[in-house]
Amino acid sequence: MIKIAPSILSADFGILAEEIARAEAAGADQIHIDVMDGRFVPNITLGFPILDAIRKRTRLPLDLHLMIVEPEKYLAEFAARGADMLTVHVEACPHLQRTLTSIRELAARRGGPVKAGAGLNPATPPDTLEWVKDDLDIVLVMSVNPGFGGQKFIPAVYPKIRQIRTMLGTRGVDVSIDGGVKVEHARPLAEHGASILVAGSAVFEAEDPAKAIRELRAAAEA
After folding, report:
1. 119 - beta bridge partners?
2. Is 51 helix (H, G, I), strand (E, B) or coil?
3. How big is the CA angle at 99 (ends 95 and 101), to the nearest 5 degrees?
4. What is the per-residue burial (b if ≥16 Cβ within 10 Å, else e) of 4-26?
5. How far apart are CA 222 and CA 201, in angstroms?
6. Mean pLDDT rounded to a whole number for the chain
């Protein structure tokens, strides 16, 4: 089943609580939160206070996409403040297996699972994940170059998704697609093996977010 994860990077932060409530009421499966440090990517976004505010206002799983250097320094704090999924970037983690293992070990501290994800930039090959397949709960494929919302989807990721799904085999690992996802991309993404569609502007800039989520899900499951 396809999951829809609205990305709050495209939300109106002046009414963030309302935006999150609208997404939840519209049938979102989880909330995607982009954390950027101005070093790994050329932008700075959300930190701990925003995560605290979001956690208080929704019961949906919170999917944190850490576009930061040295993410291992902050994993425990993010988990303690309510993150349900922590995705780090392959390009930012020289000791990726250790970092993924440490994410999973955080579950004991918070009394519930914390899923471990690895993100790949558009030009990063899937075989970088070959030796950490058993440590993954999520693979996040960037379909834009990370750093800013509202970019155009890169179609070259379609075969990459298929390659990742094949490599993962029967493991119950989600393949998440992030960047420029619109309703016209939903079906081919699902056909190539995606199971989570991250959508920012497609949801939050829509006149009717509930309709946008329904259309994304219907197109993916057609």
Report:
1. 89, 140
2. helix
3. 120
4. bbbbbbbbeeeeeeebbebbbeb
5. 22
6. 94
| pLDDT score recorded for residue 166 | 96
CA distance 133 to 199: 26
For residue 49, the model assigns a pLDDT of 92
pTM of the model: 0.95
Closest CA to 28 of 45, 4, 2, 8: 4
As assigned by CATH, the class of the 3-221 domain is alpha beta
Stretches in the chain below the pLDDT threshold 50: none
Q: Which residue has 């075969």 as its token pair?
A: 159
- Report pLDDT for 147: 79
pLDDT at 108: 66
Where in the sequence numbering do the catalytic residues fall?
A: 34, 178
C-alpha closest to that of 195 among 127, 138, 124: 138
Give the integer Cα–Cα distance in Å for 82 and 98.
22
Which regions of the chain does DSSP assign to beta strands (E)? 3-6, 31-36, 62-67, 85-89, 115-120, 138-142, 174-178, 196-199
Domain boundaries, the chain: 3-221
Question: Which amino acid is residue 143, in one-letter code?
Answer: S
